[in-house]
Amino acid sequence: MDEKNFQEILDIGIALSSEHDLSKLLDKILSKAQEVTGADGGSIYLVNKDKMIFKASRNKTLLEKFGPEKMKEIVKTFVIPVTKKSMAGYTVVTGKLLNIPNVKNIPSSADYSYDPTFDKKYGYDTVSMLVIPMINREGEVTGVLQLINSMENGKPVAFKTSHEKIISSFSSQAAISITNAELNEDLKNAHFDTIFRLSEAAEYRDKETANHIKRVSHYSRLLSEKLGCGPDACELIFWSSPMHDIGKLGIPDAILQKPGPLTPEERAVMEQHTVIGALVLKDSPIPVIAKSRIVALTHHEKYDGTGYPQKIKGEDIPLEGRIVALADVYDALSSKRVYKPPMPEEKVISILKEGKGTHFDPVLIDLLLESMKKIAEIKEEFSDKESDYDKFSGIKTADLKNLLQ
Ligand code: C2E
Ligand code: SIN
Ligand code: SIN
Ligand code: FE
Ligand code: FE
């Protein structure tokens, strides 16, 4: 490997190790591998025990032919067994790379063969292939990088020995980054799963449904998208809104589940759910929890400064607090509560409009009214059934044990 290639590998390694999102990482690996080898197409399989999952794919010719939408359909994920019969499987089992100048000339005596189904279906002509196992630090084959048709002057030619070398060392960098991204993905999933379960626990006591928090999350993300927040900011609002009422865990049943209106004293206790929530979530170094704390604390502030607990107003109320305030009230009004039946849509809208600039951020109200079609779709997708309301009522301790098995 010459100096230039070595530098290239170093740069790629650095670029890959900074990408923690698995699907973005795989796409980056493919585009870098294409760049280095001039490959027209490429795909990645990830190995999971005795199976290989087709995870990512790029193909310049097919992208031009079909466009990005159809392309997504073409490269939908699928699973194949790890055996020597497929070229990708062969490299997993043997740990050896395959550099095939022309797949039509693979001898029938070989363990593996080329499956022409894909080419026939989409009118593609696979000629040369470079198939490389991705091996991590522990020496495990974690995936396969498969490159198709190295192009020279618009024609597919065989991959070079220099490509083999550079892609081999590149693919072990990729394997390490993939292992890290998978760990990161597991952690993220565990984290978000916990958030939803905790939020559900709070809502069950409130006799609200798990769907309530899902709807509020989706409405909140929709509003932040409409406002023009970036994708990461929108995602953060989505994941920090479910915990807005987590502080209700600290409110006594007699108040929380009271079938009628609250007395002023009960109301004062009830309003503490914002502060209790902020205390539960305080001092977290995790961004989504820090954001959740702000949402819990500020989701009952009002735009004119008459809300609680801090009576802050206008833009002094953090944006995420203003967004969740609107999403939460819209959902509370349209849903059944222990203290009230659901309201018809016209009544909900007229209450919200009345609150424009007093209770709610006027800009957000306009965005909500513009988005009623999307709002209705979310409401439909996460609609409450009667049985959702008492999922836990009447369950005895013995039954709970069975539920866990
Ligand atoms: P929640 O049921 O999730 O309601 C959230 C917010 O939606 C309420 O905040 C209020 O701004 C709005 N909202 C809900 N129902 C109505 C309604 O019928 N009309 C109008 N105009 N707005 C409504 P709020 O008032 O600060 O209440 C916070 C939480 O306190 C409520 O959360 C609920 O858990 C509890 N709560 C409020 N009023 C009562 C009540 O009369 N009886 C009982 N048992 N709980 C209440
Ligand atoms: C953000 O991306 O969070 C900023 C959106 C805004 O303040 O309008
Ligand atoms: C924050 O905690 O940063 C926002 C809540 C507040 O308005 O003080
Ligand atoms: Fe609340
Ligand atoms: Fe709520």
Give a brief outline of the structure.
The chain has 18 helices and 7 strands. The protein is elongated and about 85 Å long. The chain starts with a helix and ends with a helix.
Share of helix, binned: 40-55%
In the CATH hierarchy, the architecture of the largest domain is: Orthogonal Bundle
Q: Secondary-structure element sequence?
A: HHEEHEHEHEEEHHHHHHHHHHHHH
Mean pLDDT: 89
Please work out how many helical segments DSSP would assign.
18
Q: What is Rg?
A: 28 Å
Count of discrete structural domains: 2
Largest sheet: 7 strands, antiparallel
**CATH-defined fold name of the largest domain:** Hypothetical protein af1432
The fraction of residues assigned to DSSP E strands is 5-15%
Shape: elongated
Bound molecules: ligand C2E, succinic acid, fe (iii) ion
SS-based structural class?
alpha+beta
CATH class of the largest domain: Mainly Alpha
Distance between the termini: 56 Å
The strand count comes to 7
